[in-house]
Amino acid sequence: MMKFGNLLIAGITTGAIYAMFAVCVSVWYRVSNILNLAVGDFAMVGALGVDNLYRVKGLPLPVAIITTLLVVAAFAYVYDQIVLRIAQDGPRRMDGIVVTFFFTFALSFFIDGVAKMLFGTDVHAAPALWNGDSLSLGSLHFERAGLLVLGCAVIIGGAFWVYIRFTLGGKALEASGENSVGARIVGIDTRRYRRLIFVGTAVIAAIFGIVESPITGFTYLSGATISLTGFLAAAYGGFRKPGRALLAGLFIGVLEAMLGGYVSPEYGDTVMYAILAALVLAWPRQLGFESAVGG
Amino acid sequence: MNGLVASSRRSAKRSARAAARVPRGLTPTALVAVVGGLFVLIWGQQYAGSVFVLAACYAIVTAGMAVQIGFSQQIAFSQSVFMGVGAYGVAMLNSHYNMPVLLATPIVLVGSALVALLLGSVVTRASGLALAVATLMLPLIAVGYVSGTGFLGGAVGAPLPGTLWPSSSASTTVALVGGGLIVIALLALAVFISARILTSDIGLELFVLGVDERTAAALGVRTPRRKLELFVLGCVFAALGGAAYAGTQQFVPETLVDPTAELALLIMLFIGGRRSVIGAVIGALVIQYLQGASNWVSVNILVVEGLLLTVVLLVDPEGLAGITATGVAWLRARLGSSSRLGGTTRPPKPPWPDGRPSRPGGIEVPVPDGAADSAEAAVLAGAIGLAEGTELANDTEITGITATGGTGRAKRTARITAGDSGRLGGGEAPEAALLEVRSVFKEYGGLSVLADITLALPERGLFALCGPNGAGKTTLLNVIGGSVPPTSGQVMLDGTDITKRPPNERFYRGVSRTFQAVHLIKGRTVLDNVAVACLASHTSSIVTRISRSRLDEAREKAASALADLGMADLAGREVSSLTLETQRMVELARALAPNPRLLLLDEPASGLSEEQRQRLAGLLAALADRTCVLLVEHDLALVAQVSERIFVLSAGRLVFDGGPSDFRSSPVVNTLLVGS
């Protein structure tokens, strides 16, 4: 029972990270019809950027964090203004799989390559924001960094929910996702929302990278794995539904921890991917796959 | 048929044949074989040559991906895994059983094909994103398996002593160059097979499948089978590339199967040009050379690949192949225009001397002024030529439902039993009924969309289905066409129960349809759009298309179907360049081309002008003489003008059926549809 409890805690912690990335992917997909396969790379830049500025360049931690986040935001803004504008707003509006997958896919490669140049190939992590031993409650152990991750997830997830549910901006966002042309006809600038959410989710991803990196450590290639899991969780949430994406992220995190703990530490992931594949094949429609992306 | 139409039909046939003069697939194959062969012979022993051979191994894989992912848009992330199956298979047979690589390769290919067939029969049940996500798990599972399996060398990788060149006593030079030449030969074979498939009649099926799976099924394509074949083809090509990799590199790294390898393959395909086989080969070359260059580029390969992919896709989503094609077309236009005295592309010549149909004693069909394309309009106006013996009521009152119909045809009797009254069968079985719908119900969740619909239609005639929005008209059409299964009830065609038959099988039995929104295949010509419905390849295997194609026959049939409608001159036009009316006419031509016995038309007049509707009315009236037409339409004047029997649906129930005169006077119809 103690093992189960600790596995559950670990699962929920990683699940919360997956869930946040999944929410970032699905919220932006609603607005832009593009899957952000670079979301994990922004997280990696957050973690390694803060580490570099703080440890190597010797900047104070708050300055390092703020500088990193500003750089991430500026980069995301410029990327939207140049690449996504040409791809989606130009005279030859592209659609289909090229836009849905391949621009952010190329972006992910680009960011990883730049990170390799700037930060090297070693494992690093941002400094722990909340130092000390893990907290214990009976026989259950809580990592401080894990609690921070959960806290951030609750705050940011809650803010998203409030924004989408209760503000005019959130309604406009929803409208852009339901019907982009219709939204523009009634005066919603869908491009502005695409840019806003892209920059916003990039910064959120970077924050999660900073908070989470003390647990696992990052290299310049860590982003792809995070993007992949975020993409998967978003996929199981039907891509357009942030709430379901969040649940799917938690489910995948807990499943991963349980399989690693009870089945096999080596083949746990293999079994998990097999289970996930079986789920898609068994209930494609119910999981929201059939309606999401075409061609 | 007058001489003009006959001659335009001949010209359409000529243009259909013109495309087939160069043997299919020979150009790219010869290019690969000659350039690749020379490169290996000259530089085979040097570093550049070894990179070239490695690139050729990847190009074998990407050539298959161009068919599966680029052309047919079946996104399955299975290539890196099967590259691993091929490479590890050869490595194991060679290092553990001393089998020569060249002998191990075909054995491994057969094994891969069997595994792919098993795996594919499970995963290709999924479509679109579900297929992508399910197969994305394959490299994730594979890398976990390989790294934990000592037999395969685990994370270290598996070396093998043998080479692709069979003689073990040969010098290094001979083994290098000979092995390289074998790889080039295999690549040429892969390119040949891919290019032959893409240019065949099945290639056209695959293109439609890629654009829209539902339309493909409605046009007779056996989509599950084609998807499975594509999956197996992609896997076997990948395994062949993997075997070539193992035989030339003499080492199989674990990274060959991981997701990064899969992504690298996708980058090659999309930089080169996803729909072009030769583009896929070039993409593999470009990426391997960038990775193999021992300078800043290869150190920062991720940045370079990311930038390159972004820039290429921004310039042209069809990659380097698309950019090249645009460039060649531009050059040709420049050269052509300088030699032809400023002659630009001429509009198609209308089949009539003055651009207007002049039928002796026939109808003056006005060509609208300021039409987007006068030739197009003229051709459409000529479509009325089909309506032999049809008198269009010139005084037709178009607004309201007071139209004076009168198609001048003898009315046929439609056997219709509405609601709960009649069960067909028993003593008064209607032996001549073509279509019978027997107490069909359709429910979505608790919502009843169709309730107890029973109707029967004879071999010939024009029947209309009307009703307010949401009455279930399109659903009934979909139930008859097979794209929506009824909750209960039966659909019989010619006395055979087809309720459980898929749409493609109904198509073979003579059920043909159009869609409410135009479902043409963008990026293809009018001729090919119609030819899709004339294919004789549905029951053939994809493999048979390497040797022969019957695309020309289909195009000839399509050409004559277009000529029948007076549209032969539009054959070479790309469909998205046409006006909505013409697109609807092309869709109608496509539905008519296979000579259907039952034609289902879903709002063919929507979006058309009054004048265009009158032309359509003439055409429909003529059609009713040779086939059974079921028309869903909102335009009540049109319906009353052309139909001999009209059904009205309301909230999923049949509330009216009768002839046009009853239809006009029926209080039910007036309340429901006219609002008075």
Description:
The complex is a heterodimer of chains A (295) and B (676). By secondary structure, chain A is an all-alpha fold. Chain A has one domain: ABC transporter involved in vitamin B12 uptake, BtuC. Chain A is built from eleven helices and two strands, in the order ααααββααααααα. Chain A has a two-stranded antiparallel sheet with strand order 1-2. In chain A, a hairpin with a 2-residue loop joins strand 1 and strand 2. Chain B has a six-stranded mixed β-sheet, sandwiched between helices. Chain B has three domains: 307 residues, no CATH class; 37 residues, no CATH class; 195 residues, P-loop containing nucleotide triphosphate hydrolases (Rossmann fold, 3-Layer(aba) Sandwich), CATH 3.40.50. In chain B, helix 3 runs antiparallel to helix 10. Chain B is built from 25 helices and twelve strands. The N terminus of chain B is likely disordered. By secondary structure, chain B is α/β, with parallel strands linked by helices. At the A-B interface, helix 3, helix 4, helix 9 and helix 11 of A face helix 6, helix 11 and helix 14 of B.
In short:
The complex is a heterodimer of chains A (295) and B (676). Chain A contains 11 helices and 2 strands, in the order ααααββααααααα. Chain A is an all-alpha fold and 295 residues long.
